[in-house]
DNA sequence: AAAGTAGGCAACCGCCCCGCG
DNA sequence: TCGCGGGGCGGTTGCCTACTT
């Protein structure tokens, strides 16, 4: 036995709203407000509509200051950035775009933006990037959704990156492992990932995020010094789906992408970081805090359990065994230098702030485990 | 000019969350 | 404490319009 419907389906009108209905609804709400009860509103307003339908009509069309029409490039950038960070949480994304509704943004993403990014991806990504399974062979080093709520009311720089809606300027990482096919050449990655000098980039000024079929790939500004370093790889948060067990762990070392409503983790709700291919190697997570600090966790087991599966972190970010918090540059250097991994990270500290640093691999190495982290 | 196709978008559906009695 | 029900949300549908053949 299902639950009772919210209204008498037989006696409510459906379909497009007439101008008369619009004016009735608007007049009523202007005069009396919603009263906090949408279900009762249509009857009071003299409308033969479901309360939910009234609410939708009001929120998406009739309420003041609704912005219709073309999205600006800035809005594109914000949507892309947030989608990369938090996924299809349209209401949250809409909250960052005054005058835009979640429905608007959702439609815009589904009809235009997604395609736009896909088109760019076809120009950017080598075939191996979209066909290889290797880049999702490991779970993402991200916290699960349930551990994020605790950060929502905390100071901005204490939030996991996935909750940062402003000034998001660090790229996310996946575990894409390229097959090195050619020696590095200036202006390209040795993975064969070409930097396109003339690519149309809607996400100007920031790291550019391109959604590929299986992972999100960031571009680097062509003229940035990093490009000249023959970097082996940039990795970003993957959006690939996979099988996920009911306890939220991710089986088969694949990346989870399950609905939050099913209680499983959702990749885009996770924080950012990167992980080395070898499970015995040290896992490192970077959490960009503010312009002068970064937070790092080197506690592999907080995110990856002993079976190398992706699991719930018991105590959130601040578990007793976790080294995680705000670090200054020296801390970062020290942590990196003490890392047992074979990654050779250099910090390009042009202006003395971590936010403008470049973590790169040893450009002389060709080992595919080398990874690079870069943020503007 | 007509039929077919694709794209855009408003609106609906159904599930989940959470406040309240 | 628990269940009900309204609100909120993301996914999906279906209509309308523009474009193509």
TrEMBL record:
GO molecular function: DNA binding
Highest taxon in the source lineage: Eukaryota
Keywords associated with the record: DNA-binding, Nucleus, Repeat, Transcription, Transcription regulation
Region of interest called Disordered, as start-end residue ranges on this chain: 125-147
Cellular component terms (Gene Ontology): nucleus
InterPro entries named among the record's database cross-references: Homeodomain-like_sf (IPR009057), Myb_dom (IPR017930), SANT/Myb (IPR001005)
Domain HTH myb-type as annotated: residue spans: 9-62, 63-117
Domain Myb-like: 9-62, 63-113
Compositional bias ranges of the Polar residues kind: 128-137
Pfam families, per database record: Myb_DNA-binding
Subcellular location(s) per record: Nucleus
Listed name of the protein: Putative transcription factor MYB-HB-like family
Naturally occurring in which organism (per UniProt): Rosa chinensis
